[in-house]
Amino acid sequence: MVPNGWNIKTLDSVSKITRLAGAEYSDVWATDPDGEIIALRGYNIENNKVNLRDVERITQEMSMRLNRSKLYKNDIVFPCVGSIGKAYLVEEDNKFHINQNIAKITPSKELAPLFLTYCLLSNAAIKQILKFNTSSSQPNVLVGNLRKFQFAFPDSKSEQRKIAKILSTWDKAISTTERLIDNSKQQKKALMQQLLTGAHTQRKRLLDDSGKPFEGEWEAVKLGDLSTKITKGTTPSTNGFSFQQHGINFVKVESISSTGAFNKSKFAYIDNDCHESFKRSQLEKDDILFSIAGALGRTAIVEDSILPANTNQALAIVRLGERLSEHRYINYYLNSPRITSLIKGLTAKAAQPNLSLKDVNSLTILLPSLKEQGKIAAVLTNADKETELLQQQLTDLKKEKKALMQQLLTGKRRVKVNNTEAA
Questions:
Q1: What are phi and psi of 216, to 5 degrees?
Q2: φ, ψ of residue 289 in degrees (nearest 5)
Q3: Which of 294, 313, 352, 360 is the most interior residue, by most CB within 10 Å?
Q4: Closest CA to 305 of 245, 255, 249
Q5: Other residues' Cβ atoms within 10 Å of the Cβ of residue 44
Q6: Where are the beta strands (DSSP E) in 321-410?
Q7: Which residues, at least 6 apart from 17, have a Cβ–Cβ distance to it below 8 Å?
Q8: What is the pTM of this model?
Q9: Which letter does DSSP use for residue 26 in this model?
Q10: Residue 300: which H helix or E strand, with range?
């Protein structure tokens, strides 16, 4: 259903679409690490922003020579191979050029460029990407098919601008929250570097209950001497085995995030008989899981909320004994820069980096008093909670924006345009 004052139009009828032609790329194109112009690849394009961590460059002369694919302010870039479904509105002249496999979309005067950018990021665009995809292995939309994409557009450019302005406000909130998350992670990293080094300066020690800095030397102890059990999980035999739709949680390395949280959507499931047969790898509350294959060094503390649970041989199970150690402190220490450095040293010459249980047992842990361990763990736990709260806010913002896009870009929810905005 198209609302009053809106019309369905093809992308070709409201914009000019081009790409870096094959002959231009094969015969003319040449990158230059010292070039003034950034040549955008699909990797660099995200949801109306660019990632410039790894870019190719070309000279100003090369960009002008290939003027048809040069990018100007208010052009939109849209990857046609691989990273399809992303789009970015160029905000300035003479900075970017499109690389191979990216479409350059120049909106006509009847369209607000930012509004069209959001159309290209919408559910309607995703459906048409799936419809016109020409490859089963790597998503691929030909420019000829991209021109056939259809969207509902308000006839009023003022209404287009108002919708785009509302959605851009949400994008700004999302970007701000992402920066706060990055800052929070960096602050935690700095705290870990400061609190887990065992440095014995007053400046770097936390305060005890009397308000004075903790004192005393730290003790170097092997992890194996702190534990009643260090073992690894059990990987089920592929012969006749299959995971279940529901059942006992089966934790894999990918079930643990880089921040030490469980991603329950990535748990597998086994039945109770299988769980009982893997007694060695049954998990208990406060066990520390430590990845020894794949993404080495990830850790997580087993909570009641995931029990009963089991795990595979890519994860070591560290069960602490009665010695003076605090499981949260040990978990953070296994994530510390010092342990990360030790792991790199142990696996430097291996084709496929893995840690043995012997390696895990031999890891040296620096232990302050039990009370200081608790204080350190509490500080780092609070830092984690701050990050988790921000990540939840980010998830909520993205969900709300997605729902708002669906309403605003279809005209199900109309916006009011005042005289000032219309002008």
A1: 100, 150
A2: -95, 135
A3: 360
A4: 249
A5: 24
A6: 364-367
A7: 11, 103, 104, 105, 106, 143, 146, 147
A8: 0.83
A9: I
A10: strand 299-301
Q: What are the structure tokens assigned to 44, written together? A: 């660099």
Q: How far apart are CA 213 and CA 209, in angstroms?
A: 9
Q: How far apart are CA 233 and CA 256, in angstroms?
A: 15
Identify the structural domains of the chain with CATH numbers, from first to last.
6-155 (3.90.220.20), 157-202+371-423 (1.10.287.1120), 219-367 (3.90.220.20)
How far from the centroid of its chain's Cα atoms is residue 292's Cα? 22
Smallest Cα–Cα separation from 316: which of 340, 296, 343, 333?
A: 296
Q: Strand pairing of 268-270 and 288-291?
A: unpaired
Cα–Cα dist 132/359, whole Å: 52
pLDDT in tens, 295-352: 899 999 999 999 999 999 999 999 998 777 889 999 999 988 889 888 888 887 777 7
Q: 105 phi and psi, to 5 degrees?
A: -115, 120
Question: What is the rounded CA–CA span in Å between residue 163 and residue 156?
Answer: 11
Amino acid (one-letter) located at 191: L
Which stretches of 136-180 are assigned E, i.e. beta strand? Answer: 150-154
Q: Using alpha carbons, list the distances in angstroms from residue 3 to 7, 405, 414.
A: 8, 16, 9
Q: What is the pLDDT of residues 34-79, one digit of tens each?
A: 999 999 999 999 999 999 989 999 999 999 999 999 999 999 999 9
Check residue 391 and report its DSSP letter: H
Please provide residue 385's backbone torsions phi and psi, each rounded to the nearest 5 degrees. -65, -40
Q: Please, what is the Cα angle at 398 between 397 and 400, to 5 degrees?
A: 65
